[in-house]
Specification:
Elements lengths: L14 E7 L2 H10 L50 E11 L8 E16 L2 E13 L4 E12 L20 E5 L3 H10 L10 H7 L9 H15 L4 E9 L9 E5 L7 E8 L4 E10 L6
Antiparallel strand pairs: 1-3, 2-5, 2-7, 3-4, 4-5, 6-8, 7-10, 8-9, 9-10
Helix pairs in contact: 1-2
């Protein structure tokens, strides 16, 4: 299938706005899912970085769900006719913290659409920029990369695996299972069947097992970082998905200590040492915590 990039040029610059309240129940649910000691949040408590993904969920009507479990395309996102749709990566600037109980606004803009030819066929990358904050100040600037791709031919061998770094300053082993994936899907109202429907993901999309959510992996990276450096303030974070993580085996969340400028590296590797997600982060002591 050949995708005509010019057919979607009119979608670039398209915007939508949303408002949500940072209610307490989703925060308790994610804290329980991440096995936190402290589960309860009170109004005014700061949200941990990336936990804003629990909000602005925009659930689609059941009659508007596509075969893969996502909402049908062509509303805000362009109707790119490729069967696989996945989270490729994101970039964040944290200006101010969000607080439980706040009313928060988000303005989303389609920043770019680019089509490329990959080993498995056509690829299309859509980048969406989000500005999230209150009426008084912007809290988070986020760019979200979505990749659309062909189904890989059945006779095609997978690309060579990229090895993860062999040493880290700290790490944590996560043993994923369908319950973890289901709970995160439920908290984020994510109907994508690759995360919970084993028959679909193995027969329709050709993967060996359920796929761990990219945002969940990114949340685990930042969660480990905050555990290691609770006194520091996260200024920026970016991640890129490199290889899928499946629920079939444990994986490791790893990181390095920050350098003198507060910059550090993070990554996720599978049980064979394959690099699955790579990330960069930076700390700042100048950002307000109020």
């Amino acid at each position: 299938m050949t995708i005509d990039e010019t057919a979607f040029e009119s979608w670039i610059g398209k915007t939508e706005s949303a408002t949500d309240f940072l209610t307490l129940a989703p925060l308790t649910g994610l804290a329980a899912t991440l096995d936190k000691e402290k589960l309860q949040f009170a109004p005014g408590d700061k949200l941990p970085p990336l936990w804003h993904w629990l909000y602005f969920l925009s659930p689609a009507r059941q009659s508007k769900i596509a075969n893969d479990g996502h909402a049908e395309r062509g509303d805000f996102l362009p109707p790119i006719p490729l069967p696989r749709r996945m989270w490729a990566g994101s970039r964040f600037e944290f200006h101010h913290p969000l607080h439980a109980g706040e009313e928060v606004n988000r303005v989303s803009t389609i920043k770019s659409i680019a089509c490329k030819e990959g080993r498995s066929g056509q690829l299309a990358f859509v980048t969406v920029k989000h500005e999230i904050g209150t009426e008084l100040k912007n809290a988070i600037s986020e760019e979200h990369d979505i990749v659309y791709r062909d189904l890989a031919p059945s006779n095609q061998s997978p690309p060579p695996a990229k090895s993860a770094p062999t040493s880290s300053d700290y790490s944590k082993t996560i043993d994923p299972d369908p319950v973890l994936l289901f709970r995160y899907s439920a908290l984020t109202f994510n109907g994508h069947r690759i995360h919970y429907d084993r028959e679909y993901v193995t027969t329709e999309e050709g993967y060996p097992g359920l796929i761990v959510h990219g945002p969940l992996l990114a949340t685990l990276l930042v969660d480990l970082l905050i555990e290691q450096f609770p006194e520091k303030t996260l200024r920026s974070f970016e991640f890129k998905a490199v290889s899928p993580v499946f629920d079939l085996n444990p994986f490791d969340v790893c990181g390095t200590n920050p350098d003198q400028e507060g910059n550090l590296s993070l990554w996720i590797k599978d049980y064979e040492g394959t690099l699955c997600m790579q990330a960069q982060a930076s700390f700042s002591h100048s950002i307000s915590n109020k």
